[in-house]
């Protein structure tokens, strides 16, 4: 439990929600990167990977919305993933100016192992919490995200 002894709690990182969430995110990213490296994947590519995991090709703009990242970030991510053989682009039959993006067959084959690696790290993160605490934490994080996204 964090002590409440400082008059200005926001002055210490342990009392800053932003700092603590960011710190947890960096730890998650490091763990994910280590676990995903054998599959040729990085944690920053997971939103794209899982958005395409259902086998439905998607446009770059759809992936931007799903991953909630900037267009330029998505363009760089997709370029790296294409270079590494993780995605394929095909012309969009409904829009000649656009391409549809899907996982390559090699990436699709890795999907069960990648999902297992992600599940293992998520389970480790929940191991120090009770079931009720895990559900509450997720609920509260959803509220924070929704509050900041508006």
TrEMBL record:
Top-level taxon of origin: Bacteria
Molecular-function GO terms, alphabetical: DNA binding; DNA-binding transcription factor activity
UniProt cross-references to InterPro entries, sorted A to Z: HTH_MarR-typ, Tscrpt_reg_MarR-type_CS, WH-like_DNA-bd_sf, WH_DNA-bd_sf
Residue ranges annotated for the HTH marR-type domain, each copy included: 14-146
Entry keywords, A to Z: DNA-binding, Transcription, Transcription regulation
Pfam family, one: MarR_2
Protein known as: MarR family transcriptional regulator
Organism: Gluconacetobacter dulcium
Lineage: Bacteria, Pseudomonadati, Pseudomonadota, Alphaproteobacteria, Acetobacterales
